[in-house]
């Protein structure tokens, strides 16, 4: 598995910290607000992260994103 690119790394770091702070995974709306991007952009990124094996989720179930890579491999959130 190749490492995440810089943009993917920021999404993964956000998911990690959001989950740690709130006790649940972020919704796509939380990602959209933080990164100031459109809903389709967030959804495509989530699909890409899942396809690359960085996360898993339950389709159709909100806030089901779960990281599959260790914290040590995540960049700092900028």
Shape: globular
- Per DSSP, what share of the residues sits in E-state strands of 2 or more residues? 5-15%
What's the helix count?
3
Q: What's the story with the biggest beta sheet?
A: 2 strands, antiparallel
Q: Say how many strands there are.
A: 2
Rg (C-alpha, Å) = 11 Å
State the helicity in percent bands. 40-55%
Stretches with pLDDT under 50, minimum 5 residues: none
As laid out across the biggest beta sheet, the strand order is 1-2
Mean pLDDT: 96
Structural class: mainly alpha
Report on the structure:
The protein has 78 residues and is mainly α. 49% of the residues lie in helices and 5% in strands. The protein has a two-stranded antiparallel sheet. Helix 2 packs across helix 3. The longest helix is centred in the first third of the chain and has 17 residues. The chain is globular, with a radius of gyration of 11 Å. The model has no long low-confidence stretch (mean pLDDT 96).
Question: What would the keywords be for this entry?
Answer:
49% helix, 5% strand, 78 residues, two-stranded antiparallel ribbon, mainly alpha, globular
How would the blueprint of this fold be written?
Layout: H1 6-22, H2 28-35, H3 39-51, E1 55-56, E2 66-67
Antiparallel strand pairs: 1-2
Quick structural gist:
With 78 residues, the protein is mainly alpha-helical. Helices cover 49% and strands 5% of the residues.
């Amino acid at each position: 598995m190749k490492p995440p690119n810089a943009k993917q790394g920021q999404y993964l770091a956000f998911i990690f910290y959001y989950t740690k702070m709130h006790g649940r995974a972020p919704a796509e709306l939380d990602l959209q607000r933080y990164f100031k991007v459109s809903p389709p952009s967030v959804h495509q990124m989530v699909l890409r992260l899942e396809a690359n094996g960085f996360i898993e989720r339950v389709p159709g179930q909100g806030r089901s994103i779960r990281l599959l890579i260790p914290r040590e491999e995540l960049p700092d959130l900028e």
